[in-house]
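Our platform keeps sequence and structure together, in a single record for each protein. Nothing more is needed to write down the fold, since each code stands for a local backbone conformation. An entry from our holdings is shown next, in its original layout:
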Amino acid sequence: MLERKIQSFIKEHLRSNTNKVLVIDGARQIGKSYIIRFVCGELFRNYIEINLLEDFLGERLFEHTTSVEDFYLQISMLAGNKMGVKEDTVIFLDEIQTYPHLLTLLKFLQHDSRFTYIASGSLLGVTLAQTVSIPIGSIEVKRMYPLDFEEFLWANNFGKEAIKNLRRKFLARESLPENIHNKVMDLFKKYLLAGGLPDVVNTYLETKNVMRVRDLQTEIGHYYAIDASKYDAANRLKIRKIYEMIPSSLENKKKRIVVKTIENKAGKRYSDYEQEFEYLIHSGIALEVRAISNPVFPLIESSNKNLLKLYLNDVGMLTNVLYKNNIRAIMDNKTSINLGSVYECAIACELKAHGKILFYYDNKKRGEVNFLIDDYDTLSVVPVEVKSGKDYSVHRALNNFISVEDYDIQTAYVISNEREVTVKNKIVYIPVYYGMFL
């Protein structure tokens, strides 16, 4: 079984006396149902799971269930022998976005306090954005992501004590010995191939067969497209087109979707496709990075929503699109291949998995910096530049950025393949695997 960091969060929530129902949000195929099932099986004697999507495609028992009494009646027909008391009975409502009215009902079920509840949804972000009757104060929504690099290391039997040592090295700004560096870099490259979707990671671990891995990633990509097809008919083709444009857009200089090319219509603006972009972001299959031209802590106060970058939610999905079954582009350090967009995607996925809101610096005079994140300890902004080649020390835009006194930049990071950690002025140069400690 793949160990996930969110396990402890779910366990603590279910053990607490909170008056909120935990709802796990996230894209398909990231392991939400599996990890909830596992944790609930550990904590409760009576486990009741209701897949509401299956119900919708079948008997539709919960389609018009709007009262607590009716809900219990339906549950009793399906699992009456497991309906104990709150302390030993948990009810898991999977794919709850299928019936948005049940999100509202959660408030009353929790107040009734007869059982313990938990829910999840694969398109929940979209549902929450469109539902006006969300029971504020009665649910806690936690976004889940694919495996980050540290979880991938766990899956590959890289010991937690070893990772603690790596963290200590990062905090002390020390380099790893060359043999350990090579080992961790090898695993990082394999992470770029496999990514963090649990079924894909398990397939990689069990078979080491890149064709099996790629076939599964392609299949999951089709699932995402099918989800988009459930959306409004007028929007679904545009959603799919924007999603398919993400990998190629990352190869462009600005790394943004060129809006006029979505339908090949001049004069189109971001506002014409706002719903489509919001779908991709809220569904969890794309990660947004907002533009900042005047970086002031906290960054959210000065972000520009109209200049978005989008990354795929999983770096393995990106390398599947770019390189298919050929692993040499990544594993052999081929100088003719620019892995800049791949490394950026990996770091974007890592930072999002750590709960960061992502921004990038965009200034016509000074240039562009890949990522900006808030540092709540120093109440300042931290720029992060990602490099995949040997010219990692060349970064004019970053130099321009940190030279602006009004920005009050205390620390900046340059992430690359280079083993040695060095500090020059305010810039800390770190190997790419240290990105998991940012």
